[in-house]
Structure formats: structure tokens, C-alpha cells
Amino acid sequence: EKISPGEIHFVKASGSYVHIHTEKNRYVLSQNLNSFLMRINLKELVRIHRSYAINIGNVESFDDTSLMIAGHKIPISESYRQEFLSRVRLL
After folding, report:
1. 45, 54 in Cβ contact below 8 A?
2. Which of 1, 24, 63 is nearest to 9 (CA)?
3. 31 CB contacts (<8 Å, ≥6 apart)?
4. Whole-model pTM?
């Protein structure tokens, strides 16, 4: 099933699987997060945690430690915070 990049809210890693969350569905792929991000290569997807990548255009709010997308609270790790903040400032 094809998913357009704008439909993706966030991607969550769970071991060797990625869960792709969209507005209507959740899809599971047998692939790790690094491989998925390299393969899909979307500038809209920003890694914010070792287990999460988010669609920067769907961020509703954020603080120092987490952000909200479609009612989901997602953690922002310290090691990825600067990259996230630099991308948010560009918007």
C-alpha cells in the first residue's frame, strides 16, 4: 500500500520493526529505523530520539523534552534536540 509522505505523522522503532503512524492507519515494516530513514530519504522526517522520527510539518507543540503530534506525546532526546530545533526554526 502506498503512503504519501505528508500522511506520515511519525515513525516508531521497536526492535527490528518500524511502526509508521498516519492519520488513519498504522503500518508495520520489518526493518530497523536507520535503514528505513535511509531508504525513504524524506527531508520532512526528522529523527528526534533513537526510537522515533517525526514529520516536522505535523508537530502541534513542543517543549524541552517532548512534542505532540496527533495527540501522541513523543520524547525528544538530548542528542537529537539541536537538530530538531534547527529544523523547527527554519519553518
Report:
1. yes
2. 24
3. 16, 17, 18, 39
4. 0.91
